[in-house]
Specification:
The protein has about 90 residues and is of the alpha+beta class. The protein has a single domain, classed as Transferase(Phosphotransferase) domain 1 (Transferase(Phosphotransferase), domain 1), CATH 1.10.510. Helices cover about 30% and strands about 15% of the residues. It has two helices and five strands. It has a three-stranded antiparallel β-sheet, covered by helices on one side. Strands 1-4 form a two-stranded antiparallel ribbon. The longest helix has 21 residues. It is elongated.
């Protein structure tokens, strides 16, 4: 991604900190992505590797969730368990 990861911007001292408006937009975008995966997607996905290095930023600092290696399918309607089958996804565009 053109603006690397959120981790790069939070912990790299070579660059100025992100403006608060940009940080808020990133946080809202990530929340929308997680809400989509957990509640709105046809197949519910539990994203279990949430960390700033897995939040990639495009040229406009829009966040993209990455690294779905630990994701799991959520429970089907009427069930309370979570499947242990690995869900293969590469990138969610918000």
């Amino acid at each position: 991604m053109s603006n690397k990861s959120l981790e790069y911007h939070l912990f790299n001292k070579a660059y100025d900190p992100l403006p608060w408006k940009t940080r808020l937009d990133i946080a809202l975008g990530v929340a929308q992505g997680l809400a989509y995966l957990h509640e709105e997607s046809k197949v519910q996905v539990i994203y279990r590797d949430f960390k700033c290095s897995n939040i990639l930023l495009d040229e406009n600092f829009r966040p993209k969730l990455s690294d779905f290696g630990l994701t799991r399918e959520g429970p089907e309607a009427g069930h309370t368990h979570v499947s242990t089958a690995v869900t293969v996804l590469i990138l969610v565009t918000l």
